[in-house]
Amino acid sequence: MAQFDGLPGRGVSPTTVRRSMRPITFDRMMRNSRQRSYFENSGYFNFGYWASGAKSQPEASGALVDQMVARIANKTGSILDVACGLGGAAKRLTHIYPPEMITGINISEAQIADARALAPGCTFQVMNATKLGFPDNHFDAVICIESACCFDTRDTFLKEALRVLKPGGSLAMSDILFRTTNLLGFGQVPPANMLPSIAEYCTHLAAAGFVSIEVTDATGECLGGFCANLRHWAASERRAGRMGWSRSVVEAVIHKLLAVFYALGCKTYLLVSAHKPS
Fold first, then answer.
1. SS3 state of residue 262
2. Which H or E run includes 105?
């Protein structure tokens, strides 16, 4: 999930899209002080799953990782966390998997360094999700949280995920369908990843070779809960004594604008599971 300090500009060319997807762009969004404060230095950076009763963003973000694990058939094998970010998901996975069975990859060296510090014992590598440097039939499960929509392209990643999965292995993702790239002026989403519907999304999974495909609309449980929390976060921080009045006023305006932006730009939030044929 991409979160940032201000509202984006308008009018994005394909060249701008490719340029803006450099690692430094993601680093600036994910590693700045506002994001660390909002996510309570948890290492998470996702909308979260709010239907299970989460009371804070880190709780919801952890619950979203749990949703990924719930969609994995074999929870005792090796697992690849694609676009692992700051390592929050990998740390959560250690509640179920031995650290040595967890591998995370990311295009950012800075984020990989953060992940290694947060989840010691796990393996982290700088790697492009569309060019996975692993042998065929290597992992029992692959997860990807709110990132496949940014890959150039999602379809390329899906083919790579299928390749590195063992026969019968599980793919679990959360992903987003957007209304229009014009709303995403910072250039996060390649035009090839703009899909109109869940049915079309399933078609792309099948074309990559996956079977037992299940795609659930979780817009309310994830995006809805996240936007609601954004709108009320600054006031909650002020009441808890963690934020002064003047700063809370500024943060409230910023986060309410962000909530509007995400609600306008994101059409459907997806929870996805699929398997490689046995």
1. helix
2. strand 102-106
**Cβ atoms within 10 Å, residue 22:** 11
The residues, ordered by sequence, that sit 6+ positions from 235 with a Cβ below 8 Å of its Cβ are 248, 252
> Considering only the top CATH level, what class is 56-219+267-276?
alpha beta
Per-residue pLDDT reduced to its tens digit, 241-277 = 988 999 889 989 998 998 998 888 899 999 999 999 9
d(CA 205, CA 211): 8
Q: Is 184 exposed, middle or buried (0-12, 13-18, 19+ CB in 10 A)?
A: buried
In terms of C-beta density within 10 A (0-12 exposed, 13-18 middle, 19 or more buried), how is residue 172 classed? buried
pTM of the predicted protein model: 0.89
Please state, in angstroms and rounded to a whole number, the distance separating the CA atoms of residues 139 and 79. Answer: 6
Cα 230 from Cα 36, distance rounded (Å): 14
Distances (CA, A) of 273 to 4, 213, 270: 29, 6, 10
Answer with the residue of higher pLDDT: 181 or 79. Answer: 79
Selection from 27, 7, 37 nearest residue 248 by Cα: 37
- Decide: 70 and 64 in contact? Cβ < 8 Å: no
Q: Where are the domains of the chain?
A: 56-219+267-276, 223-257
Sign of CA dihedral 193, 257, 216, 80: positive
CB contact set of 151 (below 8 Å; sequence gap of 6+): 83, 129, 130, 157, 190, 193
